[in-house]
């Protein structure tokens, strides 16, 4: 089939895994559900998943709609498109890490679908921080620049998921992440390289100043590395929930960095 055909399959499979967007069945013929190679397409899939919210943001900025309202609409669209998949991971992780006395207790809590106090606080902060950061930066960009800034953060946060997934062992043998397979080293390198390149290009085209670029990348690196250490200490590795939490935390960190420097 060749690289292009295989990569298109990987993009479709990644979008199907990370969102509620329906993908053509031909991309899943003979597919065993493993994402070992497909994770290389996570940053590109993130761009496509975030495209509706980026387009709406550009349109609302062009119409001079309130930046706070626009920010809420952007985050709402993202949650609808993904089915709040990453928010679910953040909430479960917060409950497990916050309420678990030890590794086994934390993993048990993370499997519980009920929302606890730590999850509620984490989700409130996640939505609040992303909305406030977007409300701060959207008026500073052109309509096209606003959309590109959102896409850049989406690419980085999906690359962060692959990095977290590949850098830690599975915390449990029967989880979603374990059943989806360990990311291939080449796929991980491709995801990180393409995600960073796409984000830098999009931020540059959005006219993010040099300090903003540096601060956003520093926030990306610090968040992924810091959260990986916390996950290793709390549960001894990664799960599907911590992978989703990584996306949320990285997006918050990158948007926050832009809000502080743009």
Structure description:
The protein is mainly alpha-helical and 262 residues long. It has one domain (2-261). Helices cover 75% and strands 0% of the residues.
Highlighted features:
globular; 75% helix; 262 residues; single chain; mainly alpha
Number of strands: 0
Classify the oligomer.
Answer: single chain
Q: Largest beta sheet, briefly?
A: none
Helix and strand succession?
HHHHHHHHHHH
**Fraction of residues in H or I helices:** over 70%
Average pLDDT, to the nearest integer? 95
Provide the gyration radius in Å. 18 Å
Cα separation of the termini = 44 Å
Concise description?
With about 260 residues, the chain is an all-alpha fold. It is built from 11 helices and no strands. About 75% of the residues lie in helices and about 0% in strands.
């Amino acid at each position: 089939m060749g690289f292009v055909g295989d990569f298109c399959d990987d993009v479709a499979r990644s979008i199907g895994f990370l969102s509620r967007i329906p993908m053509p069945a031909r991309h899943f013929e003979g597919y065993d559900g493993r994402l070992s190679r497909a994770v290389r397409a996570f940053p590109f899939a993130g761009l496509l998943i975030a495209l509706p919210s980026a387009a709406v943001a550009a349109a609302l900025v062009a119409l001079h709609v309130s930046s706070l309202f626009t920010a809420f609409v952007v985050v709402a669209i993202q949650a609808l498109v993904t089915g709040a998949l990453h928010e679910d991971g953040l909430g479960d992780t917060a409950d497990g890490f916050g309420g678990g006395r030890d590794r086994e207790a934390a993993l048990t809590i993370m499997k519980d679908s009920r929302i606890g106090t730590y999850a509620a606080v984490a989700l409130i902060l996640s939505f609040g921080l992303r909305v406030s950061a977007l409300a701060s930066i959207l008026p500073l960009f052109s309509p096209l620049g606003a959309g590109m800034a959102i896409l850049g953060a989406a690419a980085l946060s999906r690359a962060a998921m692959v990095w977290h997934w590949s850098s830690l062992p599975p915390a449990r043998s029967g989880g979603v992440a374990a059943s989806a397979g360990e990311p291939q080293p080449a796929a991980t390198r491709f995801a990180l390289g393409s995600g960073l390149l796409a984000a830098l290009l999009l931020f540059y085209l959005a006219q993010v100043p040099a300090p903003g670029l540096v601060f956003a990348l520093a926030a990306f690196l610090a968040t992924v590395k810091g959260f990986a250490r916390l996950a290793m200490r709390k549960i001894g590795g990664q799960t599907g929930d911590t992978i989703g939490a990584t996306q949320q935390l990285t997006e918050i960190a990158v948007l926050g960095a832009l809000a502080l420097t743009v």
